[in-house]
Predict the structure.
Amino acid sequence: MARIKLRVYARLREQLGFKEKELDVGDLVELLKYLESLGSGDFIIAVNSELVETSKASRYLFRDGDVVDVMPPFSGG
């Protein structure tokens, strides 16, 4: 089964209780579904440094070795 590196930032790190974890794809998809239930505006997802639409993240075709970052929304100007 494919293994994914998950990295979480800011308040999500505190909520989930870890900074970085290696997961099977199925476990990652379940976690992303849970995060989606929290509200799509609450976090941003990047796969291998490319942004992925949050509402579609649990249906993304992850591959072995992918790095998934989950972080709060950006702000700036």
About this structure: The mean pLDDT is 86. The chain has one domain: 3-71.
